[in-house]
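Feature request, filed as a ticket because there's no other form

It would be nice if the structure record came with a short human-readable summary line next to the tokens. Right now we just get the raw output. Example of a typical job, pasted below so the devs can see what we mean:
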Amino acid sequence: MKIAASILLIAGATWFGIAQAADSEANAVDQSGSIKPGYFSPQRKAERAEDRALEKRVRVALEKKGLNMTDVTVIARHGKVILAGTVPDNTQIQLAGNSATSVGGVVSLKNDLDIGYPGN
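Raw output as currently delivered:
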């Protein structure tokens, strides 16, 4: 239960950091409280679909290398990828980073994986 809560906390904090770092168009509401024109446009929908596809490609690449994805979260936004969660040992952290950067479409990688111990 602690691991699941930790992963959700890390993923939430990581996603919040990505959203804050993104350009101002990432927020649906402007300073006056109105929804920005074009926020729900087909272009934004396509961008979100591209992000989901990149997340999937990275997950598949990590699984093919034998990485245990049970406690790993992949977040992508505009080619920027974050790996968060826990893996059994340091070699898997390095393997995950190397594998993720080799995926087409990955512009940058933030590897926030930590070593997790059984029962923690």
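Something like this underneath would help us a lot:
The chain has three helices and three strands.
Confidence is low (pLDDT under 50) at residues 21-25.
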